[in-house]
């Protein structure tokens, strides 16, 4: 990696992660530091980039976030007490319970026949409603066209 | 249980162990608040986001799988997503004044200047696009590696680096006049 490291890349690392090598890309840190250390006079641009980055770092370090109140952890733990955990396959188990409650454990054909009949009746009503909607919608369009035709005739 | 890894604690939480949950909360709460506050720019939102994220930990622990990812990475992703969702909500609270209370050991004038600088940084960061803000919070203040930050943000390492470069350039422009001052006072 050392051989691949260039001053241009060092500058990019500084521009992205700041002046402190501890924040640089772990895969490149050693090579970058070695390259900087090997220079008798660090190149002016790399040096300037690090100085600029250090200035910004110093300012960013000013923004400190106070630790939370000790009661917050307790409040979070207390809030979890009323919350159930979601276990794998929970949805499937809920569905199974629901079906068992509906159909019970006895012979199931009467319930299935009832459900099928209800579905068929629902579908029939739904389709006939759609057909009547189509007719009324077409009527509205016709009415509009007629009004425009009347206006045009008047003109 | 004291020395259990985060992943070990998650396994215990999956069994409904409230002690393990408390330990995980205590271990990660400070970092969670710091990350959330730097992304939302608001303390009360940060606390709510942290609480919501930990409740998600409790709820999903039985279904949580390691899959090669660390708990910290997964949890940071949950936090970042919750922060971004919250910032997108209408009626989001404006930025609070940032900074520590003045240090009694230094002069009042210096303390005031430091508070002002901290507030200026917080304001400038709040004005960054959300992904730049999140990348900066993860890589700079949380000191997360670029690889881990990329995993949290579901981006490539190159994309994270590009976000960081743009964020820092914008911050330099916005904070320009203050830049040298903080450097001179650095301990």
User: Quick one: how many beta strands of chain A?
Assistant: 0
Q: End-to-end span of chain A in angstroms? A: 85 Å
Structural class of chain B, by secondary structure, is mainly alpha
Indicate the radius of gyration of chain A in whole angstroms.
37 Å
- Number of DSSP strands of chain B? 0
Order of helices and strands of chain A: HHHHHH
- Residue share in helix of chain A: over 70%
Oligomeric organization of the protein chains? heterodimer
Largest sheet of chain B: none
Overall radius of gyration of chain B: 18 Å
Q: What best-fitting shape of chain A do the alpha-carbon axes yield?
A: elongated
Tally the helices of chain B: 9
Summarize the structure.
Chain A contains six helices and no strands. Chain A has helices at residues 7-17, 26-38, 44-60, 70-80, 90-103, 109-154. Residues 97-102 of chain B have low confidence and may be disordered.
List keywords for this structure.
heterodimer; A: 155 residues; mainly alpha; 6 helices; disordered C terminus; B: 187 residues; 9 helices
Explain this structure to me?
- The complex is a heterodimer of chains A (155) and B (187).
- Chain A is mainly alpha-helical.
- Helices cover 72% and strands 0% of the residues of chain A.
- Chain A has 6 helices and no strands.
- The model of chain A is unreliable at 134-155 (pLDDT under 50).
- With 187 residues, chain B is mostly helical.
- Chain B is built from 9 helices and no strands.
- Chain B has helices at residues 6-14, 18-40, 43-60, 71-88, 108-126, 130-141, 146-153, 157-175, 179-185.
- In chain B, helix 2 packs antiparallel against helix 3 (43-60), helix 6 (130-141) runs antiparallel to helix 7 and helix 6 crosses helix 8.
- At the A-B interface, helix 1, helix 3 and helix 4 of A face helix 2, helix 3, helix 5, helix 6 and helix 8 of B.
How is the secondary structure organized here?
The complex is a heterodimer of chains A (155) and B (187).
Chain A: H1 7-17, H2 26-38, H3 44-60, H4 70-80, H5 90-103, H6 109-154
Helix pairs in contact in A: 1-3
Chain B: H1 6-14, H2 18-40, H3 43-60, H4 71-88, H5 108-126, H6 130-141, H7 146-153, H8 157-175, H9 179-185
């Amino acid at each position: 990696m050392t051989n691949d490291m260039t001053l241009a890349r060092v500058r990019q690392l500084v521009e992205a992660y700041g002046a402190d090598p501890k924040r640089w890309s772990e895969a490149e840190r050693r090579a970058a530091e070695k390259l900087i250390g090997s220079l008798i006079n660090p190149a002016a641009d790399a040096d300037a980039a690090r100085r600029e980055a250090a200035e910004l770092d110093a300012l960013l370090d000013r923004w400190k976030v106070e630790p939370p109140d000790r009661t917050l952890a307790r409040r979070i733990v207390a809030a979890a007490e009323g919350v159930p955990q979601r276990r794998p396959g929970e949805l499937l188990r809920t569905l199974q319970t629901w079906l068992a409650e509906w159909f019970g454990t006895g012979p199931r054909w009467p319930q299935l026949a009832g459900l099928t009949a209800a579905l068929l009746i629902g579908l029939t009503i739904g389709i006939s409603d759609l057909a009547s909607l189509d007719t009324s919608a077409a009527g509205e369009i016709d009415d509009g066209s007629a009004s425009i035709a009347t206006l045009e005739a008047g003109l | 249980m004291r020395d259990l890894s985060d992943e070990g604690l998650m396994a215990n939480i999956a069994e409904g162990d409230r002690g393990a949950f408390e330990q995980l909360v205590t271990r990660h709460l400070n970092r969670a608040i710091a990350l959330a506050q730097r992304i939302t720019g608001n303390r009360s939102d940060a606390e709510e986001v942290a609480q919501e994220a930990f409740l998600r930990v409790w709820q999903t622990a039985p279904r949580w799988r390691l899959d090669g990812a660390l708990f910290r990475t997964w949890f940071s992703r949950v936090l970042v997503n919750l922060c971004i969702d919250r910032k997108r909500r209408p009626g989001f609270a404006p930025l609070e004044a940032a900074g520590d209370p003045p240090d009694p050991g230094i002069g009042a004038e210096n303390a005031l200047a430091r508070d002002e600088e901290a507030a200026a940084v917080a304001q400038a960061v709040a004005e960054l696009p959300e992904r730049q803000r999140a990348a900066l919070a993860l890589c700079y203040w949380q000191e997360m590696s670029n690889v881990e930050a990329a995993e949290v943000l579901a981006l490539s390492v190159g994309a994270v680096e590009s976000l960081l470069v743009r964020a820092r350039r914008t911050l330099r422009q916005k904070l320009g006049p203050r830049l040298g001052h903080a450097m001179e006072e650095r301990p």
